[in-house]
Structure formats: structure tokens, C-alpha cells
Design goal:
The complex is a heterodimer of chains A (790) and B (265). By secondary structure, chain A is α+β, with helices and mostly antiparallel strands. In chain A, 28% of the residues lie in helices and 24% in strands. Chain A has three domains: 15-20 and 484-629, Aldehyde Oxidoreductase, domain 4, CATH 3.30.365; 31-139 and 201-254 and 259-293, Aldehyde oxidase/xanthine dehydrogenase, a/b hammerhead (Aldehyde Oxidoreductase, domain 3, Alpha-Beta Complex); 297-468 and 633-778, Aldehyde Oxidoreductase, domain 4, CATH 3.30.365.10. In chain A, strands 3-5-1-12-9-10-11 form a seven-stranded mixed beta sheet, sandwiched between helices. The radius of gyration of chain A is 27 Å and the shape is globular. The two termini of chain A are 50 Å apart. Residues 785-790 of chain A have low confidence and may be disordered. Chain B has two domains: 5-50, Uridine Diphospho-n-acetylenolpyruvylglucosamine Reductase, domain 2 (2-Layer Sandwich); 56-265, Uridine Diphospho-n-acetylenolpyruvylglucosamine Reductase, domain 3, CATH 3.30.465.10. Chain B has a five-stranded antiparallel beta sheet. The mean pLDDT of chain B is 96. The A-B interface holds A 123, 126-127, 130, 288, 650-652, 691, 693, 695, 703-704, 707-711, 770-772, 775-776, 785-787 and B 1-3, 40-41, 176, 179-181, 183, 240, 242-245, 248, 251-252, 255.
């Protein structure tokens, strides 16, 4: 592998600038003449706009303009799109309501943008925004998805009767019902997957520069996929044609899904700059705006039942889920609770028949979309809570019940679309049980009991699908885009290398891991490699980073381009060294003829490619190759997490005393970075399981709209994780990589809740396991908030 | 933040006179509550009168059992005073559990007491220690000083200059943190004085910090955690929000009180 090649623990190159404060985030960019934007937002969850009086605001110092939704739609700025068409089980298309970047007649959630104010300073913009008088006719609001479906509930969009967006199904209902009819035992589970606020460290931001002479816009923004942003901004929102719009996503401080989408603020800033002829406008969300407007995650309620035969083998699984999509359909909101969720309901298990029904619903809350894991955490929580509850009801050890039902033959076709290429679920379960000293738990429980503490252990054997995905397959399921990735490898005349990638790094460490591919291939030091990403003027087109796809898809594209570069370099070397092409080897920065002492330095071959003085007959000069990689399948990371908790029954405080993660990510490029991804993902999963909860009151006010009320996990809340890897290489991509970016957040919540319910001896429990809820559950209550959403 | 005028006072009388000439001014010392509130545009004082340059209003003095702490003493100074730690270790501990290091190096005891946030730690200690609050015009007993949530006996221009108390024989502070904000959701300061036990509770009650007199009576009869077993905290007085029902807070008050008695030294 070499010291900087595949498998090496290379220290992150990008950290030098991040930890010395030299990162350049969108808000760090300042240009001459830059004006500032502030938004007038709805204080009501649901209201008609009867009138807007801007005159006081427009007269204030420094104010350039106050623009509203009617002006925006009047300029033919398109409504915000949902990028994935999902049909109801009756064949009808989803009932999508209109979403204008600035509300025109109706506001549908607290924070819905009504006007954009442009002023010379931020303070002037904010002051003027407060001075805009919007006359509202307040309507009744509904915040819980199950309430929104009821007759007589407030109606959000005329297109969606009873607020139902679609009523979708997957699997075979008849076969599943038949399985339940012959079941020896049926286990039932009611579950809620709590709504989360993504909270990337850097809030969303946009800096628009408008070149009036060229009629050209440049947008610096906090995006995980700047190329897709440019496409959508051009093709659907009409802010400018693609060749007149450059989108740059510079350093971005975390995304977790929330920065996939194109939001009203970027659209409004682009439109305003062009309409007003203003050279530059900046908007940066404050933390309250982040809580109120970043797409939230999860928010499902599900009823599930699983059928077992007399040998405790699963024979059927039936699921009904209601998913809250908020006030509008965000970009991937339709795919997240369907194709990214219900397709994983087979888990690691041989389940002959599955049927899932998913209803998606409008409510007067922030739009809900993909958030780290996107559907797979919801599926895993359901499956793995079910397996543990079933083990308890069937009187089996949770590990043994899982083992009894594991898939062991690959490829494996599940009843819900996915075809698992490879895996070894026993290996991860064994490794996790060994690391957690599962056998010794009873003794530890007794010891804790002697101190008045309740100790519990829980596991979760997750599988997820990432590296989305074959373009033709997702296209047939309704996706509006293909999901390949592009790469270009530019070898400079001096032999240094630039890799241009459509993937985008917002914390993942691409500048390090992508360079490792070059080091591995040519034996060049990582410092000779530069990764270029996040700029539509530099990289031709790409699909961006989400769904743990940069390794499996983005790196595969780089490998394809490297193959082409290597082939051409070998041809040139063979010509120069008068050897057969097949005898050329590139190693440690040298180009050798195998079995001889004939060789050239790497840079000599590269320079030769660019001087063109002595190239093979007919060869074009230069050494630069591009590739598009379209994956043949998803990749299927899988593993086993074991969590052990100790609970103080007097206060309900839960301490995680150990957390073990045993993951199979296939081939690993940089174990240090992969472990970091697991640590971060598990921290987020523990956050969902024990701390984080977006709570709306009945009027649709987000009560948990700051860190005073929304608990984020902190280092002190977490144990030292024990992490290990088992490896079955992915069979469908050239590196054998599976994604690792979301597994921690996908696999951990059920392990935590299985441990807590083990400790307190009741299944009547709703995430997150705050001390209050645990105490309530111990004392015979429901274990839920007095104001819990959904 | 809205525009405001900043003025630095060099004496207590200078501060009071500056406040007198402001329309809707606020005294500021550490600003650990006021500034975030202003940044969120939830407060808009037209003048900030900075007290931190006033001499003779800081420091922690302890001779024998007599303790005097200047209003400008930061939480860090209170936490790290060895004299206080030997006289009244629980108060030093309490200061070390406020906020984070940045807050502890800026926030002051005087500011915390004058603000009387219902989840602030100091008010419970002042009640339990039977402290005297010194102002530029008078001395007020803690029992009379804290009058309700964010309410005190202070008049508009009055400035807290310090606090004093006689250290008890034993004391302890136990706090159950709000899991999100880390403010006290139930904080109980127990002090065993020569003339009786005092119990101050913060974070839990709708009325702000208060003395739990039933617990004091029980502990006067029997200085032991078990003495509280038979008591029930009135849920009707407790706060109820998304983090904790009144029943849970009532439970926490009792659990924290028992732990404080068990840990008193």
C-alpha cells in the first residue's frame, strides 16, 4: 500500500488550514460593494397574507429594496422542485403543492420566507426586515402527520386532499398476509422516529456576485452538490442560464444532508441581485434561522408486525409508516421515506415476504428531507427494535434470534428491490460480542444492581444501501437525475497531479483520501496531488456528496480516469524505452521496464507527453483523462453495534458505559478517516437516541429552536468507542469500497434503545431517551414528552 | 443587536448617575446573559453602564467563618478561592459548575444575583447560606431579595456591590442539569448552620429560587438524607416544559436534596 497509498493512515491534508483558522467558508468571502440580505419570515405556522406594507422599511437608512413573492413569481422565478416522482399505489402521481421561494398568498410554517430585504449593512437589513408590516389572516395549523390525515384537519395545499402527498407501497401484500395466517407467533411494535434538526456547525450562506456587463452571476454557497445546484437554479428556477451562472461551494462546515437542497434564500439572493443590478449580496443564516429553515430529518410513526414460524424463523414482515414531510416537498423528500427506507426493511435477514405501506403528509412544519442516513436509520430502527422485542417475546437471546435468520448466501435478492452483493453478518456480530464481553454482561448487571443502578445491553445488526446508485435503476423509480460521478485526472508537465472531482468535501477528508489513490497507483507523494472540487467553472459536472457515495462512486470515477492515464503513460514510456507496453510498470514514481534496469522518472514521461517531441505515431500530446462512473449497484455496508448502559433510577439519567462498533465497509482507503466517520456517525445516532428532538407546539411554533432547548451530543456524553472492521469487498465497484459516512448514525439508535429497554424492562418507550422519559418509563408512565411532535 | 450607547462607570455613584440619565439603561458586568439576549434582538437597552472598572467591588474575602464576596468577582474567582474553599466548599464548587470556562471567566456573582434567572445557581446558595446582599444604598437579606422569577428587591438604579454570610458548619450543592442548556433543572443547596438548617432550591419552581422549609424542619429534627423520605414536593409550584414535567422536577428536587445532605461537608 505504501506509506500514503490505499489502506494507509494518512493524516488529513486539509486540517492544516482548518485548524489554523485558514479555512475559507462562504461567509469569509467579502467583496467590494457587497450588500446584505435579511428575510422577513412568517411568525405563524399557517396564515393567509392579506397585505404587505413596505413603505416604512423602504424609507430606512441604507435600504436598497424590499422584494416580495409576487415580484418574484412575476419575474418567472420557478417554484421549488422535488427531484423524485413517487406514485401512489393506485398509480396516481404524488400530490405536490406549489412552493415559491417567497410566499405569495399563504405561509405554511414558522420561518417561511415572505420578503427579502437588501441593505448596505447587515444591521440595516435586519432593522428594515423588522419594519416590514405583513398583515396575516391566521389559520389553524397542524403539526403531527397522523393528525393532518384526519378529516377536518387544516388543509395545507389544494393539490393534496387531507394533506396526503402519496400512499405508496412496496412488496407483496397478499403473500405477506398469507404468511401471517400461518405464523406460529406474531410480534407487534409501534414506533416513532423522532424529528431531528441537522445543525451543521457552519450555517447556510450565500454570496451572489452579479457582473452587469457580462450578465453573469457567481454564487458562493454552502452546498454539498454545487453542480446540481447550478442545474436546478438554471433549468427550474430561471435565475440564469447555466453558462451565465457559476456556483462555488468553497470550504463547507458540515452538511449531513441539509446542504443538498437548493433553498429559497439562494434563489431570492440571485434573483434580487439581477433584478436590482446590485454587484454583490450576502446572506448568512444565524443559528435561529438554521433551526427554523434547514430541512429537518426523520419524523416517522410506524406500526409493524413480524411473523415467525415455530422455529423462530421470520416468515413475513408488515409495516405501515406515516412520514411527515413538513409544509413543502423538499428536493429528495419523496425518495427518503420510500426508496431509501422501505427497501432496507429486510435488514440482515432472510425474510421471504415483506409488505410496507408509506403515507407521506403535509404539516405546518419545516420541510423534512434526507438527513445523515436518510431513510435507512428509520428502517434500521424499526427492524432492529423489532428483532430485539421479538427475541424477548420468543424467549431467545437477541444475538441467537438474529443469527438464526441471517442471510448467508450472496448475492441475495430481498423482497424489497435491493440485491445484496456480499456480506458476512456473523463476522461482525462475533467481533462485536467479543469486544463487548457479551458473555460477561450478567455479572456486570449484578454488580450495577448492588450499587442501585440498572444496567442493560442492546445490539443492532444493521445493513444499509449507499453509494446511490445505478442511474437507469433510479431513473425507473422516479429520480429526476442520474447518480453517476465524474472525475478528471490532469497530470502536469512536471508530473504533479490535479484531480477534479464532482464529489464535494464538507468534512469527509477527500483531499487526503482521493490523493491516496494517486499515491497508490504511481507511488507519488500525496503532497504532489491537488484535489479540485466544488466549482462549476473548474469541474465539468458532477453529482455531489451525500448518501455515502464519494468513496464508492466518486473514487470509482477517479480510478477509471487513472486507468486511462496509466495506459497512456505506459504507451509513451514503452515508445521512449523501446519496450513492449505490457512490460512497463509504474512504481514509486518511476516508470520501469520489468526485468531490466531500463527506466524513466515519472516526470520525464509526463514532460514527454507535453513536449510532444517523441510520441508514438498518431498519439495526441498531453496527459489528462476524464471518466464518468455509473455504479452497477448500491453498496451494502453492514455491521453490528452493541451498547451497554447504566441508568440511575432516581433521576432517569443514562450513562453509556460502553459502545462497540464492528463494521464491514469493504476495502478501506484510510482507516483513520473511516474511524472518524464511525465516531461522528455514532455520536449523531446516540444524539438521536438520547438527546435530540425537534418539538412543535400545537400552534406550530418550534419550541426547541435553540441550544437552550435542543440537546446536541457533547464529548462528555459519549464513551470511548471500540471500533473494528470486518471486510468483504464490494463486488460491484473497482476498489471494493462500501460507504462509511452514515453507518454510525444508522446502526446506533436501536442499539441504544435496546439497551435502555433491557435495563428498565419495558418496551413502552419513545425516543429520545432523555432522563425525564426514562424516569417516567421506570415509574410506569409512557415515557414521552408532554409536547412531543408526531 | 440594536444600537446602544456604552458607558464605563468608574465608581458606584458614577454608575448610578449615568443610569439616571439613561432612558432605558442596563448595568452590565460580565454580560453573559444580557449580551446574548441583545444579540438575539430580544433586549434593546439604549445604554449599557459597565460596572467592571469600579474599584473595590470584586474579590473574595474570608476570615474565619465570615465570608464577603464583591459583586464583580467572577465565577472563576469564586471557584478558585482557596479561602472560600476551606470556609464554604459547596459555594466554590457551585461556581465551578456554572456554564463553561468562557462564562466563568466573564460572568460575575453580582450579575447573576441581580438577574435572578430561575435556573441560576447562586440564588439557591444565597438563600441557604442566609446571605446578605449589599447594594449601594442598603443591605438586604437573601430571603427578602429574591422576589420571583427574574424579580428582585432592587430598585431601578440600585447596584449590587457584594454579598456576605457566615459560613455554615456543613454545606453542599447538588444540581441536575437541563440536558440541553445545562442550566439547573433542579439545584439544591443545603447548609447546616449552628442555628438550624437552610435549604435553597433553584431551577424547579415557577416562582424562582425558594427555601424548602419542610425539608429544613425535617433536617433540623434529623440531619440525614432519610429524613426527607417522607416529604413530598408540591408539584403545583413546579415548572413544567418540554424537558421535564412538574412531577419529574418535584422528584428531582427531593433526589438532589438527599444527595446534597449525604455529600455535605
Amino acid at each position: 500500500m505504501g506509506v500514503e497509498g490505499i489502506g494507509a493512515r494518512v493524516v488529513r491534508k486539509e486540517d492544516k488550514r482548518f485548524i489554523t483558522g485558514k479555512g475559507r467558508y462562504t461567509d469569509d468571502h467579502k467583496v467590494a460593494g457587497m450588500m446584505h440580505a435579511a428575510f422577513v419570515r412568517s411568525p405563524h405556522a399557517h396564515a393567509k397574507i392579506k397585505g404587505i406594507n413596505k413603505s416604512a422599511a423602504e424609507a430606512m437608512s441604507g435600504v436598497e429594496a424590499v422584494l416580495d413573492g409576487k415580484q418574484l413569481t412575476g419575474d418567472a422565478i420557478g417554484n421549488i422542485i422535488c427531484g423524485w416522482m413517487v406514485h401512489s399505489k393506485d398509480g396516481s402521481p404524488m400530490n405536490m403543492g406549489a412552493w415559491s421561494a417567497l410566499a405569495t398568498e399563504t405561509v405554511r410554517y414558522v420561518g417561511d420566507a415572505v420578503c427579502i430585504v437588501i441593505a448596505e449593512t447587515l444591521e440595516e437589513a435586519k432593522a428594515a426586515a423588522e419594519a416590514v408590516e405583513v398583515n396575516y389572516d391566521v389559520l389553524d395549523a397542524v403539526v403531527k402527520a397522523t393528525d393532518a390525515l384526519k378529516d377536518g384537519a387544516p388543509q395545507l395545499h389544494p393539490e393534496a386532499k387531507n394533506n396526503l402527498i402519496f400512499d405508496w407501497e412496496i412488496g407483496e401484500e397478499e403473500a405477506t398476509d398469507a404468511a401471517f395466517n400461518k405464523a406460529a407467533k406474531v410480534v407487534e411494535l409501534d414506533i416513532r422516529n423522532n424529528r431531528l434538526v441537522p445543525n451543521p456547525m457552519e450555517p447556510r450562506a450565500a454570496l451572489v456576485q452579479y457582473d452587469t456587463a457580462e450578465d453573469h452571476l457567481t454564487l458562493h454557497t454552502t452546498s454539498q452538490n454545487p453542480h446540481v445546484a447550478r442545474l436546478v437554479l438554471s433549468a427550474f428556477y430561471n435565475v440564469a442560464p447555466e453558462h451565465k451562472l457559476r456556483v462555488i461551494a468553497p470550504d463547507v462546515g458540515g452538511g449531513f444532508g441539509a446542504k443538498i437542497y437548493i433553498y429559497p434564500e439562494e434563489i431570492a439572493c440571485l434573483w434580487a441581485a439581477k433584478r436590482l443590478g446590485v454587484s454583490a449580496i450576502k446572506w448568512t443564516a444565524d443559528r435561529t434561522e438554521a433551526f427554523l429553515t434547514d430541512a429537518h430529518g426523520r419524523d416517522h410513526v410506524s406500526k409493524a408486525k413480524m411473523a415467525f414460524d415455530k422455529d423462530n424463523k421470520i416468515i413475513g414482515f408488515k409495516i405501515e409508516t406515516v412520514a411527515n414531510l413538513g409544509a413543502y416537498m423538499s428536493l429528495f423528500s419523496s425518495a427518503t421515506p420510500t426508496y431509501l427506507y422501505a427497501t432496507l426493511l429486510s435488514g440482515q435477514y432472510n425474510i421471504p415476504t415483506i409488505h410496507a405501506n408509506v403515507k407521506t403528509v403535509y404539516t405546518n412544519t419545516v420541510p423534512v428531507d434526507a438527513y445523515r442516513g436518510a431513510g435507512r436509520p428509520e428502517a434500521t430502527f424499526l427492524v432492529e427494535r423489532m428483532m430485539t422485542k421479538a427475541a424477548r417475546e420468543l424467549g431467545e437471546d437477541p444475538a441467537e434470534l438474529r443469527r438464526k435468520n441471517f442471510i448467508r448466501s450472496f448475492p441475495h435478492q430481498t423482497p424489497v428491490i435491493m440485491n445484496y452483493d456480499t456480506g458476512d453478518f456473523d463476522a461482525s456480530l462475533d467481533a462485536a460480542m467479543e469486544a463487548a464481553d457479551y458473555k460477561g454482561f450478567a455479572k456486570r448487571r449484578d454488580e450495577a444492581e448492588s450499587r442501585g443502578k440498572k444496567r442493560g445491553i442492546g445490539m443492532s445488526c444493521y445493513i444499509e444501501a449507499c453509494g446511490i446508485a445505478p442511474s437507469a435503476a433510479v431513473g425507473s423509480l422516479g429520480a429526476g437525475v442520474g447518480l453517476w460521478e465524474s472525475a478528471e485526472v490532469r497530470v502536469n508537465p512536471v508530473g504533479t497531479v490535479e484531480i477534479l472531482t464532482g464529489s464535494h468535501s464538507h468534512g469527509q477528508g477527500h483531499e487526503t483520501t482521493f490523493a491516496q489513490l494517486v499515491s497508490d497507483r504511481f507511488g507519488l507523494p500525496g503532497e504532489n496531488v491537488q484535489i479540485v472540487h466544488g466549482d462549476t467553472d473548474k469541474v465539468q459536472f458532477g453529482m455531489g456528496t451525500y448518501g455515502s457515495r464519494s468513496g464508492a462512486v466518486g473514487m470509482s470515477a477517479i480510478v477509471k480516469a487513472l486507468d486511462k492515464v496509466e495506459a497512456k503513460a505506459k504507451k509513451i514510456a514503452a515508445h521512449l524505452l523501446e519496450a513492449a507496453e505490457g512490460d512497463i510498470e509504474i512504481k514509486d514514481g518511476e516508470v520501469l521496464v520489468k526485468g531490466t534496469d531500463k527506466k524513466l522518472a515519472w516526470h520525464e514521461v509526463c514532460l514527454g507527453a507535453y513536449t510532444g517531441h517523441n510520441l508514438p505515431e498518431g498519439m495526441e500530446p498531453g496527459l489528462k483523462e476524464g471518466a464518468f462512473y455509473d455504479p452497477a449497484n448500491f453498496t451494502f455496508p453492514a455491521g453490528c453495534y452493541i451498547c451497554e448502559v447504566e441508568i440511575d433510577p432516581d433521576t432517569g439519567t443514562t450513562e453509556i458505559v460502553q459502545f462497540v462498533a464492528a463494521d464491514d465497509f469493504g476495502q478501506i482507503i484510510n482507516p483513520m478517516i473511516v474511524e472518524g466517520q464511525v465516531h461522528g456517525g455514532v455520536a449523531q445516532g446516540i444524539g438521536q437516541a438520547m438527546m435530540e428532538n425537534a418539538v412543535y407546539d400545537d400552534e406550530g411554533q418550534l419550541i426547541s429552536a435553540s441550544y437552550m432547548d435542543y440537546q446536541m451530543p457533547r464529548a462528555g456524553d459519549l464513551p470511548s468507542f471500540q471500533v473494528s472492521h470486518q471486510t468483504t469487498p464490494c463486488t460491484t465497484n473497482p476498489l471494493g469500497i462500501k460507504g462509511c459516512g452514515e453507518a454510525g448514525a444508522i446502526g446506533s439508535p436501536p442499539a441504544v434503545i435496546n439497551a435502555i429497554t433491557d435495563a428498565i424492562g419495558t418496551e413502552r418507550f419513545v425516543m429520545p431517551a432523555t432522563p425525564h422519559r426514562v424516569w417516567q418509563a421506570i415509574n410506569g408512565g409512557e415515557g414521552h414528552d408532554i409536547a412531543g411532535a408526531t | 443587536m440594536y444600537e446602544t450607547i456604552y458607558a464605563r462607570a468608574d465608581s458606584v455613584s458614577d454608575a448610578a448617575s449615568k443610569m439616571g440619565s439613561a432612558g432605558d439603561g442596563k448595568y452590565i458586568s460580565g454580560g453573559m446573559t444580557l449580551l446574548p439576549t441583545m444579540k438575539q434582538r430580544l433586549a434593546a437597552p439604549d445604554a449599557l453602564i459597565d460596572l467592571t472598572s469600579i474599584g473595590d467591588m470584586g474579590g473574595v474575602d474570608s476570615s474565619g467563618r465570615s465570608v464577603k464576596i464583591g459583586a464583580l468577582a467572577t465565577h472563576n474567582e469564586v471557584n478558585s478561592s482557596s479561602a472560600l474553599r476551606s470556609a464554604c466548599p459547596a459555594l466554590a464548587d457551585l461556581a465551578g459548575w456554572i456554564g463553561d470556562p468562557a462564562v466563568r471567566y466573564r460572568g460575575t456573582i453580582g450579575g447573576s444575583i441581580a438577574n435572578n434567572d430561575p435556573a441560576a445557581d447562586y440564588p439557591s446558595a444565597m438563600l441557604a447560606l442566609g446571605a446578605t446582599i449589599h447594594t449601594n444604598s442598603r443591605e438586604i437579606s437573601a430571603d427578602d431579595f429574591f422576589t420571583g422569577m427574574f424579580e428582585t428587591a432592587l430598585s431601578d438604579e440600585e447596584i449590587v456591590t457584594g454579598i456576605s454570610f457566615n459560613a455554615p458548619e456543613k454545606c453542599s450543592y447538588e444540581k441536575f442539569r437541563n440536558p440541553a442548556s445545562r442550566y439547573a433543572m433542579a439545584g439544591v443547596f443545603v447548609a447546616k448552620h449552628a442555628d438550624g438548617v437552610r435549604v435553597g432550591v433553584t431551577g424547579a419552581s415557577q416562582g424562582g429560587a425558594y427555601r424548602w422549609t419542610e425539608a429544613e424542619d425535617a433536617l433540623n429534627a434529623n440531619w440525614s438524607p432519610d429524613a426527607l423520605d417522607g416529604l413530598a414536593v408540591d408539584e403545583g409550584d413546579m415548572l413544567s416544559d418540554i424537558h421535564a414535567t412538574a412531577a419529574y422536577r418535584a422528584n428531582l428536587v427531593k433526589v438532589m436534596a438527599k444527595r446534597a445532605v449525604a455529600g455535605a461537608k
